[in-house]
Amino acid sequence: MPKRKVPWWLNEHDFFVASLILKGIDAALEVVGGLVAFFVSPQMLHYIVTALVRRELIEDPNDLVAHTLLKMVHQYVPSVQLFISVYLLAHGIIKIFLVYNLLRNRMWSYPVAIVVFSLFAVYQVYAYIQSPHVSLILLTILDVVVVVLTVLEWRRVSRTKLVRMETERLL
Description:
The chain is an all-alpha fold. Helix content is 83%, strand content 0%.
């Protein structure tokens, strides 16, 4: 009887790979955001955001999203600009590096990724407490899911390598 294919979300390894792809996309967006933050001046950003929300504020002067964006852009000063750009670039590059090595099954990358992604999650919880934003919750959930799946995948890969080494030793 042919083996039934299990959907990717029910297959632990496939779910792990899918979570890494999401993590890689998130990391690439952080790198792009870091580059934009580095090269776009606070004045230019203020002009862009004001132009984008102007029509919405005319239609609805109490629009929460438009007011939140304007508030955020007013707090965006050169010192914050440098911090944000360096933070996003470093965060994104580290995640891309770890995702790449996890996808290549490099054994050293599993414990490193578990520690680093856990630290990112802890920092994001701290940042959420300081300034609540739904995106921080979503990123933290993604980090926790990736950490759990990385632990499970590390165990699976370690068992497989152990069995292979034991088999080779017996032959």
